């Protein structure tokens, strides 16, 4: 099924792209160059948004391309090349950020909502009126949000990436990750909840 | 909030929150979900934070609308292509 998702990210590779990929797999240098020139600009913009430093962003883009070329045989064409590269550059940038800031992956269990035996919330959140725009206007809060995302375990972060950013359906994510749809839903909720918990201080500062 | 007849708990509400945001809750469950929300301030605040979390994620990690202002340095393109050959 071809599904046009958020900003055209979620589309299958078309015939011309498939041809280009076949050339790349055969070792064509011109195919590699064409891919680099076509995608490098938005990849730099995305990497820069995450790591906030031009030189580091360029390192991220280079690592992302090398990683993509090295694993090109794993790219099956059931997403567009742009979608695949997007996933790689986000992951590479977040891992670079985590390393630079010396952050550790957080335990997903420690970040879940706590309930009383009767099922009500043990630590009810306070009402907030902050909007995404208000939070992201502040550079320090913006950085805090990115650091929080980078601390999520990979198994959860990838589900957030596929569902929330690439806007794949639950069944498409299940197929991509070879897990059940029920598992996708569980990981999605636990991942979002964990991220929300990590962001609580940001929400309060953004008031 | 505590369970009342025909009501769900906060914990049960959380189990349906992804389907609620996807718009895939069946009408009867939707009605129960929204009834709980109407009466439970803690869950309204929770849902707001949950939506805010998703919105922040989307804004920060989606593809930028516009390319970065500076031209891509030719040196960077050459370095990537040279590194590819080394890693073949």
Describe this structure in words.
- The complex is a heterodimer of chains A (207) and B (88).
- With 207 residues, chain A is an all-alpha fold.
- Chain A contains nine helices and no strands.
- Chain A has helices spanning 15-25, 29-51, 54-70, 81-100, 132-136, 139-150, 154-165, 170-177, 181-205.
- In chain A, α7 (154-165) packs across α9.
- Residues 1-8 of chain A have low confidence and may be disordered.
- By secondary structure, chain B is mostly helical.
- Chain B starts with 9 loop residues before the first helix and ends with a helix.
- The mean pLDDT of chain B is 88.
- At the A-B interface, α2, α3, α4, α5 and α6 of A face α1, α2, α4 and α5 of B.
| Beta strands of chain A, count | 0
The helix content of chain A, as a percent range, equals 55-70%
Radius of gyration of chain A, whole Å:
19 Å
Overall geometry of chain B comes to elongated
Q: What percent of residues of chain B are in strands? A: under 5%
Mean pLDDT of chain A: 88
The chain pair with the largest interface is: A-B, 62 and 50 residues
Low-confidence stretches of chain A: 1-8
Low-confidence stretches of chain B: none
Q: Number of helical runs of chain A?
A: 9
On the 0 to 100 scale, the average pLDDT of chain B is 88
| Oligomeric status | heterodimer
- Biggest β-sheet description of chain A: none
Structure classification of chain B? mainly alpha
Query: Which structural category fits the helices and strands of chain A?
Result: mainly alpha
Q: Which of globular, elongated, flat, extended, rod-shaped describes the shape of chain A?
A: globular
Measure the end-to-end span of chain A: 43 Å
**Structural Rg of chain B:** 23 Å
Distance between the termini of chain B: 60 Å
Give the SSE string of chain B.
HHHHH
Q: How many β-strands of chain B, per DSSP? A: 0
């Amino acid at each position: 099924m071809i599904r046009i998702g958020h900003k055209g990210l979620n589309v299958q590779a078309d015939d011309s792209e498939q041809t280009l990929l076949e050339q790349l797999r055969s070792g064509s240098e011109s195919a590699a160059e064409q891919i680099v020139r076509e995608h490098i600009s938005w990849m730099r913009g995305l990497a820069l948004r995450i790591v906030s430093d031009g030189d580091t962003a360029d390192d991220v883009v280079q690592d992302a391309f090398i990683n993509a070329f090295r694993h090109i045989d794993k790219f099956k064409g059931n997403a567009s090349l742009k979608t695949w590269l997007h996933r790689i550059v986000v992951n590479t940038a977040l891992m670079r950020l985590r390393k630079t800031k010396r952050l550790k992956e957080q335990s997903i269990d420690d970040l879940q909502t706590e309930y009383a035996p009767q099922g009500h919330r043990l630590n009810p959140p306070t009402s907030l009126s902050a909007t995404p725009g208000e939070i992201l206007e502040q550079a320090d809060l913006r950085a805090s949000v990115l650091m929080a995302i980078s601390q999520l375990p990979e198994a959860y972060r990838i589900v957030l990436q596929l569902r929330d950013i690439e806007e794949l359906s639950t069944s498409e994510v299940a197929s991509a990750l070879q897990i059940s749809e029920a598992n996708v839903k569980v990981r999605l909720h636990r991942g979002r909840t964990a991220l929300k918990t990590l962001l609580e201080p940001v929400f309060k500062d953004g008031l | 909030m505590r369970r009342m007849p025909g009501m769900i708990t906060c914990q049960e509400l959380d189990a349906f929150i992804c389907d609620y945001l996807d718009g895939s809750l069946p009408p009867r469950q939707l009605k129960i979900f929204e009834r709980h929300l109407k009466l439970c301030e803690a869950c309204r605040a929770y849902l707001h934070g949950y939506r805010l979390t998703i919105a922040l994620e989307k804004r920060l990690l989606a593809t930028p609308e516009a390319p970065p202002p500076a031209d891509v340095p030719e040196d960077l393109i050459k370095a990537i292509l040279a590194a590819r050959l080394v890693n073949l």
